[in-house]
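Blinded run. Sample ID left blank on purpose so nobody reads anything into the name before looking at the predicted structure. Input follows.
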Amino acid sequence: MSLPLDGIYQELILRHYRSPAHRGEMDAPDAVVMMRNPTCGDDIVLQLRVSGGVIEDVRFKGQGCAISQASASMMSGLIAGKTFAEAEPLLARFRDMIHGDAEAARDKQLGDLRALSGVARLPRRVKCAMLPWDALEEARKQLPEV
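Blinded prediction complete.
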């Protein structure tokens, strides 16, 4: 018996939560951002290494719900190797999806992040999903050369 689509998405979120990509510390990051979601207590520390405008490495640590931590894992994998110019439209598309845009939820450019499309039905969890993306925006401000 196969899982319904929502069940498959839940499994993907839990897989990223339990075995996150890019979790850990980085030696000599170019940007470090600490963010907290006071509503639910999620927190994240996002670290980036950037060279020539390219996000060469992404690391995060933190604690929180499956949504915030899975979002950080998925985002990290998606933006590594991209420029900020390439990452910014992904951020905008993700934000649209999290706020209920059905077309954005089908956008293959978002990869695994599409599993978080159901968050749009849970308004209190939108901040959880956006936490790493908000940290990315703040990190960009620390890097004026990009």
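Unblinding after everyone has recorded impressions. Residues 1-5 have pLDDT under 50 and may be disordered.
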